[in-house]
Amino acid sequence: MTKGNGSIGDANEIQVAIGDLEGKVVMAFDHQISKLVMDPENARQIGAQLVQSAYTAHTGVKVTDVPAAIKEHTRTTLIHRFIMVDRNLREQGKSPGYIAQTLVDLFLSEVS
Question: Are 15 and 49 in contact (CB under 8 A)?
C-alpha cells in the first residue's frame, strides 16, 4: 500500500496507507480517527491514490502498467477515430499492412 501524511485538526499528523486487497480498496490509518482534515494537495494525493487503487482492485492491473498519457476518455476517442480511419482506408482498397501501419502511426502521434 502507498503511505502518505494527513492531519487531524491542526496539531496531529497521521499516517495513511492506501491500496487494494482482494478486489477491495483499503485505507489503513495508524490510529483511530473520527475526522480527517487536510490541505488541498494532500487531498489531491489521497484522491489520486484512491482512484489508482480502485482501478487496480476492479481490473487487476496496476495503474503504473498503463501509460499515464492514456486516460479513459482519450482511449474512447482514439477507438472511435481508429474505427473511422480503418473504415475509410478499407473503402479506399488499402492493404491490411498499410492500414495497420497507419493506425500505429496515428496511435504513436497521439501518445507521444
Answer: no
Domain boundaries, the chain: 2-65, 72-111
pLDDT 10s digits, 91-109: 999 999 999 999 999 888 8
pLDDT tops 60 at residue 70: no
Alpha-carbon gap, residue 48 to 18, rounded angstroms:
10
Q: What is the torsional sign of CA 60, 62, 65, 70?
A: positive
- Answer for the pair 85, 106: CB distance below 8 angstroms, yes or no: yes
Read off the amino acid at residue 9.
G
**Would you say 37 and 73 are in contact if contact means Cβ atoms under 8 Å apart?**
no
